[in-house]
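writing this on my phone so excuse typos. first protein, seq and then structure
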Amino acid sequence: LEEIPPRPVQDTGNILKQGYLEKRSREHSFFGSEWQKRWCVLNRRTFYYYANEKSKQPKGNFSIENYSARLAFHLRKDSRKKCCFELTCPGKRTYEFTAPSPAEAEDWVDQIQFLLKDLSSLTIPFDEEDEEELYNDVDSSDSVNTTSHNTTLNQDEPNVEIEEDDIYEVLPGKQPKPE
């Protein structure tokens, strides 16, 4: 049986971006570092973070739907402040990250924003199940249209069907052959 998410790093599905980031911990411990290195994986809907790239269980994950991503230089005061970005959503936890470089931080933000545009677009199916339901809906409406279309045809051309019946009766019937 397959496990339902959370998943090991290798099984997170269609990975759009992955790599090491430093994530700010929610509880700022007096002894511990407030920034912890995490292997982060972004797929079509979910952001996962792991202790490292070989971890079987994520330290956490969240659906990125309704989040927004932006560079956030105010998160750090040191030389890496231009490497910071945050994911925010009204009424939900804000996630704060530091990338290895300013270019990497921008790339994470760009990838997440691109994905959020896809998620908010109604023209792109979110997953195969939605696509299948959509297909079934189209299928059932087609059969309704076909039925009404055939009925219309039969009413328009009653003579053709009668002629066809006459033809079929003549052909298979055995007539005496001239001797």
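second protein below, same order as before
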Amino acid sequence: MSVTSLTIRHVGERFQRSNDTISRYFHKLLSIFSSSPFYSAYVHMPDTDEVQPEIRENTRFWPFFQHAIGALDGSHIHAVPAANNRAAYRNHK
């Protein structure tokens, strides 16, 4: 559900399980992935030195990304700009 953005209802229908069962197991997995053994072993925050030079040295990008934590390369960030700003953000990946 977190990768495909499917709802509990869709996942339940796909696996022929009740919404309650899907929700219960989803919350169990969330607690496992956010608990200390898993999280501390596999989740690492990057250093600021890992920012690409073309972003760090470009005054067009750096003011917006200097406080960003994590990798943006290959990530999809769902954003809904205001109606009057949508043209500026159209076709940006």
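The mean pLDDT is 80. thats all i got for now
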